[in-house]
Specification:
24 helices
Length: about 725
């Protein structure tokens, strides 16, 4: 399979390559072509950003459609974002303009007329989101055989965004249902620039098919240019300190402005609120300097039109353009040749860091670069652990893990995804019309994502849905969707398995600005799309808020929690704090802040023990474990140790430390924690008898005993806690020698 496959490609593909003036196919493209031309295997293309992954998947697939035209949709492309689908749609139109192979896209913003044309003449390439595919399976089951009976390829873009998440379970279920309904056996191709655990990824991609997976992994030799800046915001306890805080914030925003406003730049934030506030401040700086407003905001609550304007300004606009964005621009949308990527704070995962880093340096001769800007509210009178620069340490940890070892978070597939089981059961029953319980159980439990669900658990699951009128019996003793279930299933929001708050559209005249989840009353102001708006009227019936432009300072309207952090990242943060290394990418201010933190950690004994005195009858517990293990420890102390040790309170500062108060000394508390870890065999013992916490969007509709069991299996991690604490104690004992 070492031959150059260029001359095997369809003539219109060769012509496309000539027009692009490529001197040769890239390594990933050569290997992918040879796999497709010579084997029946699925394929995982795990190559770096701008390595030609998309073409590597499509060149051989389109060649097959050219040589043997499909009698239905021949290639199904599944993308995680509408914006990514729109971007790939434009790219494919160029490639297919000479190939006489139609390309269709299907999501909520696509006109109905285009969807109708596809249904009348299914062919070529269909690009779709999981949610729109769910709608097809539910509402047009009779059309599925005609649409997909000759489906040859399924291409899943940004495959890491699906793996381990509820949407990934949904995608695997949808593919299995299509294969059953249409009688097809397509080759699956996964694309990702952010994978290290190939075994888990290939197992996910091949789930339920019995077919092998070949991996295309091109070595990442791209140059990196990294810089980490740190800004301290003093605590304002009096007028003088308030002035210092005002000046510090001005310096911070001036720095971001100077770092971006003459470039094509992308500013990543960890929340919509941070994106809004940052662009609001950038516009104020520009107005103060009487310079042009070239700033944009891009996140899920901005209208599609404004998001597309932002993407166009970055990709093809004349002159500089700056956008603040969340995960909506983290995935593989082509934004052209960005000159700078800025990260405010630190990403919560190495995976996110790699994705964001990949937005820059997309030309082969350019380095991928990222400027981290880490703000910190410093208070010398705060609790000892709160005086650590956690965000700065996380930035360093993520950089070190990926740059030195190419580590990214491994896949963790859920064993009992009960909410998605409800979703897929109702979706399948909607498309079937009715089904006998045994028939429904066989159809659902044979889907790969639900392999760990036992038959008796599914029986309990169905019985509860019947009791709550989500399902009901017919006279023929078959099951149909009940009245309560109809209200859920017939809502357009049902197609998505991720949680989405009900939103109100925000309109300035007839122009849609975006949407908000918290609706202020008339006369109040809020920010959206980086601008201030005053509410003029609220139409609750049509879920619309009418606004006009305003001036002043206001809060944004989103509440957001941080992301989960893996134990490996947290333990690397501890290593950074205990080390003496001066990292070359740190600015002088960042070096100074890290050195001050290291000195305080040494002098206070912060790194010597898991449990340290906090004054009075309080203790600090620093387990140095990831979010899931941290939450497990919280439950262990609250449920198993509170009464036993007379603990008055256990306050988590997730995911870094606890403040524990009560009549117990540190040595005893640690000994009891370790004893519980050794003896606890079932995480369900950490739950109250009537407790059944939700992990997913539809968990509320599932029998509480099943939700309780699912939470103990997928929401807690006793083994991870044991291993993490053991590692921390090993460090502690070595530091005392």
């Amino acid at each position: 399979m070492s031959e150059n496959p260029f001359y095997r490609l369809a003539p219109f593909v060769q012509e496309f390559i000539y027009k692009k003036r490529w001197e040769s196919l890239r390594p990933a493209q050569i290997e992918a072509c040879n796999i497709c031309f010579h084997t029946p295997h699925h394929m995982l293309i795990a190559a770096g950003t701008a390595s030609g992954k998309t073409e590597a998947a499509f060149f051989p697939a389109l060649t097959e459609l050219h040589e043997r035209p499909s009698k239905s949709v021949g290639i199904l492309y599944i993308g995680p974002l509408k914006a990514l689908i729109n971007d790939q749609f434009e790219r494919l139109k160029d490639l297919l303009s000479e190939g006489n192979i139609p390309v269709w896209h299907w999501h909520g913003d696509v006109p109905q007329a285009e969807k109708t044309r596809l249904m009348r003449s299914p062919s070529g390439v269909l690009q779709i989101t999981p949610e729109s595919l769910e709608g097809l399976l539910m509402n047009r089951p009779n059309a599925i055989p005609a649409l997909f009976h000759d489906l040859r390829y399924v291409i899943i873009d940004e495959v890491h965004a699906f793996m381990g998440a509820d949407r990934g379970i949904q995608v695997l279920s949808e593919l299995a249902r299509i294969e059953r309904m249409a009688g097809c056996k397509p080759r699956r191709v996964g694309l990702s620039a952010t994978l290290s655990d190939y075994d888990a990824a290939t197992a996910w991609l091949a789930a339920g098919t019995g077919q092998g997976v070949d991996v295309v992994a091109s070595p990442g030799g791209r140059k990196l240019r990294l810089r980490v800046e740190h800004f301290s915001f003093p605590d304002a306890r009096d007028e003088e300190q308030a002035e210092h805080l005002h000046n510090a914030r001005k310096v911070y925003y001036d720095f971001i402005y100077e770092s971006t406003h003459r470039k094509k730049a992308l500013i990543f934030t960890n929340s919509r609120t941070d994106a809004e506030v940052t662009i609001l401040e950038m516009r104020r700086v520009a107005a103060r300097r009487q310079e042009r407003d070239l700033f944009h905001v891009h996140h899920g609550s901005i209208s599609a039109m404004l998001r597309e304007e932002t993407e166009a300004a970055l990709r093809t606009g004349a002159g500089p353009a700056v956008a603040a964005a969340t995960v909506t621009l983290e995935l593989g949308i082509d934004l052209g040749e960005l000159e700078r990527v800025v990260q405010l704070g630190a990403p919560y995962s190495a995976s996110s860091f790699v994705q964001r880093l990949g937005r820059s340096g997309r030309r082969e001769d350019m380095a991928s670069e990222m400027l981290f800007v880490c703000p910190e509210e410093e208070d010398e009178e705060a609790q000892l652990p709160a005086r650590m620069p956690w965000t700065l340490m996380r930035a360093i940890a993520v950089i070190e893990l990926y740059v030195k070892t190419k580590w990214v978070e491994p896949l963790e597939a859920r064993k009992m995804p009960m909410g998605v089981l409800y979703h897929q059961t109702m979706s399948m029953l909607k498309s079937m019309g009715e089904a006998e319980p045994k028939e429904l159980a066989k159809a659902m439990l044979s889907l790969a994502p639900f392999a760990h669900i036992r038959a008796e658990q599914y029986q309990l699951f169905l019985n509860y849905l019947i009791e709550t009128d989500h399902l009901q019996w017919t006279e023929d003793r078959t099951l149909i969707i009940g009245l309560t279930g109809e209200k859920t299933v017939n809502n357009y929001r049902f197609y998505a398995v991720f949680k989405d708050d009900e939103e109100h559209k925000v309109l300035n005249g007839s122009e849609e600005i975006g949407s908000i989840t918290t609706v202020p009353p008339p006369g109040y102001c809020f920010s959206l799309a980086g601008k201030l708006w005053k509410v003029e009227e609220v139409d609750h019936k049509h879920k619309s808020v009418y606004v006009k432009a305003a001036k002043g300072k206001v809060d944004t309207l989103w509440l957001g929690a941080g992301g989960d952090i893996h134990t490996t990242v947290v333990q690397k943060m501890r290593e950074v704090l205990s080390d003496t290394v001066i990292y070359p990418y740190l600015s002088p201010q960042a070096v100074n802040r890290l050195e001050r933190a290291r000195r305080l950690a040494r002098e206070s004994g912060l790194l010597k023990q898991v449990v340290i005195p906090a004054g009075g009858d309080s203790l600090y517990v620093l387990p140095w474990v990831g979010s899931k293990s941290f939450r497990t420890l919280e439950r262990l102390m609250k449920h198993n140790l509170s009464d036993k040790l007379a603990l008055r309170s256990v306050v988590p500062m997730e995911p870094y430390y606890f403040v524990v108060s009560g009549k117990v000394d540190g040595r005893t508390l640690l000994a009891e924690i370790m004893s519980e870890c050794r003896t606890a065999e079932d995480a369900s013992a950490l739950l109250s008898e009537d407790e059944a916490p939700y992990l997913g969007k539809y968990d509320e509709f599932v029998a509480p005993p099943l939700i309780r069991e699912a939470f103990s299996v997928d929401g807690l991690d006793l083994n991870g806690l044991k291993e993490g604490l053991q590692q921390t104690l090993t460090w502690d004992s070595s530091s005392e020698k």
